[in-house]
Design brief:
It contains seven helices and six strands. With 181 residues, it is of the alpha/beta class. The chain has a six-stranded mixed beta sheet. Helix 1 links the parallel strand 3 (23-27) and strand 4. The longest helix is centred in the middle third of the chain and has 14 residues, at 70-83.
Amino acid sequence: MKHTLADGVRLEYTIQGDEGAPVLLLLNSLGTEMSMWEGQLDAFSTTHRVVRFDQRGQGASDSPPGPYSIEILGTDAIDLMDALGIARFSICGLSMSGLTAMWMAAMHPDRVDRAVFADTAAVIGDASYWNERIEMVRTGGMAKIKDQVLARFFTPRFIDEDSEVVRRFTKMVVDAPPEGY
């Protein structure tokens, strides 16, 4: 399903679970799409109505020219929840989206019931780290940083096992829109 934001950006989203259950909003990490949560959906949707979406610049959502601030990404999520008629929800943000979840919890405490900030920090890397990554993507595309990204997601042993999970995440990263990244 798609939702169009006030600035014309379209977000791809999906909802799973019982309509009357408490809502859990899942925010995926940079360079991935909402399908990254598929391994957790069966468990989460037994107790929650799970909302997932491809954030601006990721997956099947639009990738307008950036940069995208944490405030923009958080406002997009709030706008989507408003459009879905969901006033209060729990949230789990992973990595970069942990920052988005922190912003949402701080700026909209009346909306956020519970929050999980997974594998994140208030600051992730410094400007030189991100500038180097940006340059690598601009000159070599997403494939240029694939190994770096996968090494942050998985142990070397798990990568060597060449599981379906690793293949799926590799495709997700390589197919990510460079401008969105």
